[in-house]
Design the sequence.
C-alpha cells in the first residue's frame, strides 16, 4: 500500500527514526564520560554478543517455509545443518554456503517426493 | 591527547577483509529492504535516504510496513526505537574498548554500529591493544557495510525486482547471524547466555515492537553473568584458561595505555 505522506513529512520521519536509533547507539559510548558503569554491568558485558545474536537468530531460523520434507520443514533441516557447520567450522562462507545448499536440496527433494 | 592518533590502514583492511564473507547475507537483506521501500511508494533516493539516516535493516523493514499501513509518526518512531534498543547493549559493550577516544569520534563511530560490525569488533578488540587500531578495525568493518547497504537498498528500490521466491535468499539473513553467533559463544557461561536468549526469543516472538528480542537478550546476558558467578563455566574453562583471562570481563582494556 502506498504511503500518503508529503516528501517533507517523509524526511522528517526518516530523520526522527535515525535520531532515536542514534540515541540507542551512542548512549553508553557518550554516557561513559559522566557515569561510571557499575561493576555488575561490566561483568555482564561479555555476554551481550552470544545473548543478542542468539535471540536474533533463533526465531528467524525457526520461521517455517511451509514446505516439508518427511517430517520437518525444509528450513528446520537446513537450519539444523547450518548450526552444526557454524559450530564446527566457525566459517561464515561455509555456514552460508552449506545452509543455502541444504535448503535448496531439501526443497527440491520435497518437491520430488510430493 | 589522541587527536593526532594516526590512522592504520592495516587495521582498516583487516576489518574489511573479515567482513567480506557476509556480503552474501547483506545482499538479500538490502535488496528486500529496497523492494519494501518501493512497494510503499518511496522513490529510490528516498529509500537510500532512509538507509543512510537509519542504517538498521530490521527497523527499516518494520517502519516501511507501518508506513504502508498508514500508521502515525509517533508509532513508527517508537517502533524504530524499540527494535534498535539492542544497540544500546552494543554501545555499552563497546564503550570500555573505545573510552579513550574523543566524544566526537565516539559519536561518529556509534552511528556505524550494526549487528554485524559489532559482532566482528567485539571478537577482535581483545586482541588489539591500541585504541586507535580498534577504531580503525571497526571502521574497516562498518564503512563497507554502510556502502553496501546504501547500494543494495538503492538497487532494490530502483529495480523493484523481487528476488525469485524459489531461491529463498531471505534465509541467508538468519544464516549470516548464525555464522556471527558461533564464534561469540566462547565458554559455558556464553553458551548459557545464548541458550536463554534463543529460547526466550522463540517463546516471546509474538510480542509487539520486537520487545521479545530485547527481553530475551537481557535475560540471556543476566543468565550468562550468573552462570559465570556461580562457577558454572569453570570446568569447561580449565582447558582454555588463557582465553578466559584474556577476556576478563569488566576489565578496562585501556588502563595505563597511552598514559604516562
Sequence:
Amino acid at each position: 500500500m502506498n504511503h500518503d505522506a508529503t516528501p517533507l513529512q517523509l524526511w522528517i520521519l526518516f530523520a526522527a527514526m535515525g535520531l532515536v536509533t542514534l540515541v540507542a547507539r551512542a548512549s553508553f559510548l557518550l554516557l561513559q564520560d559522566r557515569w561510571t558503569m557499575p561493576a555488575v554491568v561490566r561483568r555482564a558485558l561479555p555476554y551481550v554478543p552470544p545473548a543478542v545474536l542468539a535471540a536474533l537468530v533463533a526465531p528467524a531460523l525457526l520461521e517455517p517455509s511451509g514446505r516439508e520434507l518427511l517430517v520437518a520443514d525444509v528450513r528446520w533441516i537446513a537450519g539444523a545443518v547450518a548450526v552444526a557447520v557454524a559450530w564446527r567450522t566457525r566459517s561464515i562462507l561455509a555456514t552460508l554456503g552449506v545452509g543455502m545448499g541444504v535448503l535448496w536440496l531439501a526443497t527440491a527433494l520435497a518437491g520430488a517426493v510430493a | 591527547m589522541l587527536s593526532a592518533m594516526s590512522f592504520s590502514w592495516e587495521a582498516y583492511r583487516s576489518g574489511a577483509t573479515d567482513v567480506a564473507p557476509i556480503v552474501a547475507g547483506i545482499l538479500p537483506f538490502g535488496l528486500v529492504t529496497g523492494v519494501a521501500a518501493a512497494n510503499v511508494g518511496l522513490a529510490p533516493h528516498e529509500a537510500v535516504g532512509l538507509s543512510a539516516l537509519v542504517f538498521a535493516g530490521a527497523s527499516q523493514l518494520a517502519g516501511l510496513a507501518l508506513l504502508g499501513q498508514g500508521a502515525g509518526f509517533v508509532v513508527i518512531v517508537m517502533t524504530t526505537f524499540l527494535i534498535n534498543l539492542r544497540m544500546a547493549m552494543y554501545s555499552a559493550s563497546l564503550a570500555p574498548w573505545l573510552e579513550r577516544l574523543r566524544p566526537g569520534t565516539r559519536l561518529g563511530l556509534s552511528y556505524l554500529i550494526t549487528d554485524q560490525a559489532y559482532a566482528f569488533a567485539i571478537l577482535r578488540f581483545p586482541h588489539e591493544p591500541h585504541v586507535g587500531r580498534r577504531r580503525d578495525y571497526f571502521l574497516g568493518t562498518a564503512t563497507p557495510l554502510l556502502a553496501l547497504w546504501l547500494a543494495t537498498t538503492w538497487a532494490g528500490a530502483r529495480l523493484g525486482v523481487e528476488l525469485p521466491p524459489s531461491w529463498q535468499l531471505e534465509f541467508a539473513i538468519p544464516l549470516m547471524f548464525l555464522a556471527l553467533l558461533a564464534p561469540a559463544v566462547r565458554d559455558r557461561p556464553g553458551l548459557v547466555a545464548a541458550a536463554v536468549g534463543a529460547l526466550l526469543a522463540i517463546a516471546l516472538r509474538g510480542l509487539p515492537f520486537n520487545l521479545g528480542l530485547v527481553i530475551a537478550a537481557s535475560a540471556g546476558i543476566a543468565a550468562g553473568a550468573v552462570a559465570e558467578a556461580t562457577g558454572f563455566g569453570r570446568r569447561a574453562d580449565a582447558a582454555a584458561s588463557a582465553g578466559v583471562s584474556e577476556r576478563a570481563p569488566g576489565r578496562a582494556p585501556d588502563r595505563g595505555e597511552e598514559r604516562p
Observations:
- The radius of gyration of chain B is 20 Å.
- Residues 127 and 246 of chain B are 9 Å apart (CA to CA).
- Chain B touches chain A through 104 residues (CB under 8 Å).
